[in-house]
Amino acid sequence: MKFLYRFLLALFFLVWVGGMYLVFTTTQDINRAAKMTVWLAQYVANPYFIVLFVGGLAAILVIFWLPIWLKAYRQKQLHKRLKKEGVWASVPIIHIVDTRLTVNKNPRIAISVRILNILATFELTVSRVQIPRVGDLIDIFYDPKDPTRVVPAEY
After folding, report:
1. pLDDT grade for 89, boundaries at 50, 70 and 90
2. Does position 5 have pLDDT exceeding 90, yes or no?
3. Strand 150-152's sheet: what is its strand order?
């Protein structure tokens, strides 16, 4: 899936660079600018152009924005559900991994904890001045039916 996103991003970038090249080269040559204007007018006059243009914008929105939004929405729903129905626990941190993401210059880390002898991992954005360490206690909510579903108590 990451390959698809990277491929589409590279394709979008190449189309943008091509468009910028056409814009800058046509402004220097008047004959070429006239030809480009005629060529573009033919495509814009086509009734399917608006549908394809808006469809392309919608595809870009769906491809790049929707997966990020869905992940955040699901995480928020899981947090709400586990806060109501889950079990609270204060457990030691077993392992910490940097995800190489930052939110407002604060690192996002993956924290692993052991609950009922089952290893569970969740991501959390922490302050740069108070990064948790292995062995520190952290408050969590977990699903008693599936202890691998864990969210931090303070979200």
Report:
1. very high
2. no
3. 118-125, 106-115, 87-103, 137-142, 150-152
Tokens 């392309």 label which residue? Answer: 56
* Per-domain boundaries in the chain: 2-64, 87-150
Classify 100 in phi/psi space as left (phi over 0), alpha (psi -120 to 50) or beta: left
Q: Which of 37-46, 55-64, 107-116, 132-141 has the lowest mean pLDDT?
A: 37-46
Question: Which listed CATH number (2.40.50, 2.30.30, 3.30.70, 1.20.1260) goes with 87-150?
Answer: 2.40.50
